[in-house]
């Protein structure tokens, strides 16, 4: 069994595979996995669409910031899947960069849209043109996601390929000690 020396925070757009790849990566490493969205829902006692509807995006982002702060400062090194907008907030981004290694799971628009259209639970995509909204969000967010410590392509290859790519980089940088 290896050792994870620092939390790995997966960042990127909705549909990039942060949760599904994160779960598999954590299992591969034998460490805990936390999904920030699930943790937010547990803390709030409501589903994310309900939080958005009742309190708005600003209240959701405040809760997101608090939950991520708690996870990266109070838990031993683990894998953390963040929400698509979490890394956009400067204070959350700074906290992640200070206490974790940030990995941008980068995927092209067509793959992202194919993945997110299967589910109707994306509050930011409840628009007349969800693909156009996703395209706009991607264009706005990519420069910030590029500030992540590591970038890994999350294309249509099996998740094991993305995990292998991450493991190689994390081993070279000493974040994962086999």
TrEMBL record:
The keyword DNA damage does not apply. It holds the Pfam family SKI. Belongs to the shikimate kinase family. Monomer. This is Shikimate kinase. The keyword Metal-binding applies. ATP binds at residues 15-20, 122. Keywords: Amino-acid biosynthesis, Aromatic amino acid biosynthesis, ATP-binding, Cytoplasm, Kinase, Magnesium, Metal-binding, Nucleotide-binding, Transferase. It is found in: Cytoplasm. It is an enzyme of class 2 (transferase). SUPFAM superfamilies: P-loop containing nucleoside triphosphate hydrolases. Substrate binds at residues 37, 61, 84, 141. NCBIfam families: PRK13946.1. Pathway: Metabolic intermediate biosynthesis; chorismate biosynthesis; chorismate from D-erythrose 4-phosphate and phosphoenolpyruvate: step 5/7. It comes from Rhizomicrobium electricum. The lineage of its organism: Bacteria, Pseudomonadati, Pseudomonadota, Alphaproteobacteria, Micropepsales. It catalyses: shikimate + ATP = 3-phosphoshikimate + ADP + H(+). InterPro entries: P-loop_NTPase (IPR027417), Shikimate/glucono_kinase (IPR031322), Shikimate_kinase/TSH1 (IPR000623), Shikimate_kinase_CS (IPR023000). Its EC number is 2.7.1.71. Its cofactor is Mg(2+).
